[in-house]
Amino acid sequence: MSGDAAVSGGGSSVTRALRVVEAVAAAGDGVTAKAIARRLGCPLPTAYRTLGTLVEEGYLVRLHDVRGYGLGYRIADLHRSLASQVAPPPEVRRVLHEMHTSLGAAAYYAVFRDVEIVVADVADCADHPRPESLRIGEPTAPHATAGGKVMLAGLRPARLAELLARTELSKLAPRTVVERRALDRELMRVRSAGVAVEVDEFQAGRAGVAAPVLGLDGEVTAAVGVAVARAEFSSRRWELERGVRGAAARAGALARAARSS
User: Fold this and answer.
1) Angle subtended at Cα 146 by Cα 246 and Cα 228, rounded to the nearest 5 degrees
2) Do 153 and 190 contact (CB within 8 A), yes or no?
3) How far apart are CA 25 and CA 45, in angstroms?
4) Class of domain 3-77
5) What angle do CA 200, 203, 204 make, to 5 degrees?
6) In whole angstroms, what separates CA 148 from the centre of its chain?
7) Do residues 191 and 130 lie in contact, with contact meaning Cβ atoms separated by under 8 Å?
8) In this predicted model, what pLDDT tens digit does every residue of 36-51 receive, in sequence order?
9) End-to-end Cα, the chain, rounded Å
């Protein structure tokens, strides 16, 4: 939406535009203005005006073949911009892809972004796919993923409390840790071991292990992790652990070198 439109319409028009985009995303291609108006509880002329502005600005498109609206290509542009902003240096990405190939496992790199732990890069393939909810540029559940737990474990108490205050400990899979005391005990184990493990916590039937990436000051700045089918995890745990420890050490050295140069 243009700056003039946002100012003239006030905050409510901005909120309404966002709700319209969300409604179109939820409904899928072909949703009509009448359906949007009913969903949002607003007058039909208001829905048409908002839809028209969003189409003009590229956030929605008018699909004539299905006589409705769909998401516009500016949305994809925004997501690409976000993904590029959190992406690790190319050298670190190579480490991740080499780990994926050598271990035969989906590999990922997670970073802090304010009070969120965000997936910065993923290396996977059809034979070794990532967990369904592990998407580049999106927050991951820190209490349920190995990468998230290893990053939580590296935080100072005040920072940990701040991050967890914004995190809902949702039950995502059969063994997800959903109580703060249990999570604190798990983080103590992670600090002692130097790696984090998750089995049936983020997605049923999946397991993984992650190691911390250290920054210039020695604090945890990111995590390198792998995810495999639960059925193969027990027999491969130590192989995978050695792989992520080595990859995390290399990634940390490369990231520190890139920042200090």
Assistant:
1) 80
2) yes
3) 21
4) mainly alpha
5) 55
6) 10
7) no
8) 999 999 999 999 999 9
9) 39
Domain boundaries, the chain: 3-77, 87-260
Is residue 107 within 8 A of residue 96, CB to CB? The reply is yes
Number of neighbours of residue 105 by Cβ within 10 angstroms: 27
| Amino acid at the residue 166 | R
Secondary structure (DSSP) of 126-164? SSSPPPTT--TTSB--TTTSHHHHHHHHTS-HHHHHHHH
The continuous run of DSSP H or E covering 74 comes out as helix 73-86
Question: What dihedral angle (degrees, nearest 10) is formed by the CA atoms of 221, 224, 230, 231?
Answer: -160
CA distance linking residue 259 with residue 250, whole number of Å: 14
Tell me the per-residue pLDDT of 109-137, one tens digit each, with 9 for 90 and over. 999 998 899 999 999 999 999 998 899 99
Name the amino acid, one letter, at 7. V
Q: Is 167 helix (H, G, I), strand (E, B) or coil?
A: coil
Query: What is the CATH T-level fold of the domain 87-260, as seen in this structure?
Result: Beta-Lactamase (3.30.450)
Q: Which amino acid is at 34?
A: K
In this structure, are residues 59 and 23 in contact, taking their beta carbons and an 8 Å threshold? no
The pLDDT score that the predictor gives to residue 261 is 67
Contact of 46 with 37, CB cutoff 8 Å: yes
